[in-house]
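User: Here's a structure from my thesis project, written as structure tokens. My advisor, Dr. K., wants to see whether a designed sequence matches the one we expressed. Can you design one independently, without my sequence as a hint?
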């Protein structure tokens, strides 16, 4: 609803891939591929949009060693809710290991996007014009950012993350998952 979007001050989304292969097709990331029409509506009408793309989130890795440490903590503290973390992360690690051989752990795509809300200074952004291809064919769902000095006037400009402080992210994840619940 465009009227609702006018009242939204800021929007942060995980989607797209820039200078990086897609995870659904060679060029398309899953969220934008699922509905490129909706993605373009947001790109055209959001006032203050920040995109955390696949080329960033793919590096927000939780390694098997981190998972083992988290699992051991929850077993020692008998935190039953915490015991679901390992099976979930193992499931994703197995999935990503098949689609991306040699990956060192499970990427936390949505987690790093939410983490950005609390740690904006740990993420580097660029303002660039962006569009998503809605046309059927090989480019369906592809996100395009125009990094040229003279840009396409048909693309609205937004904040796009291009790197983040992984060590800070990893420290926060471990501190969060290694807290005793009350």
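Assistant: Designed independently from the structure alone:
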């Amino acid at each position: 609803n465009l009227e609702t979007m006018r009242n939204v001050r800021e929007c942060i989304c995980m989607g797209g891939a820039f200078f990086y292969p897609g995870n659904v097709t060679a060029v398309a990331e899953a969220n934008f591929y699922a509905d490129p029409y909706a993605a373009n509506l947001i790109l055209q009408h959001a006032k203050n949009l920040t995109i955390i793309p696949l080329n960033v989130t793919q590096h927000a890795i939780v390694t098997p060693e981190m998972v083992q440490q988290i699992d051991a903590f929850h077993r020692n503290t008998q935190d039953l809710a915490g015991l679901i973390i390992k099976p979930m992360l193992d499931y994703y690690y197995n999935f990503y290991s098949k689609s991306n051989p040699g990956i060192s752990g499970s990427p936390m795509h949505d987690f790093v996007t939410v983490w950005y809300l609390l740690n904006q200074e740990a993420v580097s952004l660029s303002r660039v014009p962006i569009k998503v291809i809605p046309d059927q064919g090989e480019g369906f769902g592809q996100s395009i950012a125009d990094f040229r000095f003279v840009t396409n006037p048909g693309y609205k400009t937004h904040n796009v993350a291009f790197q983040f402080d992984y060590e800070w992210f990893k420290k926060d994840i471990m501190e969060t998952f290694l807290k005793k619940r009350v």
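When you compare it with your expressed construct, this may help: DSSP finds eight helices and seven strands in the chain.
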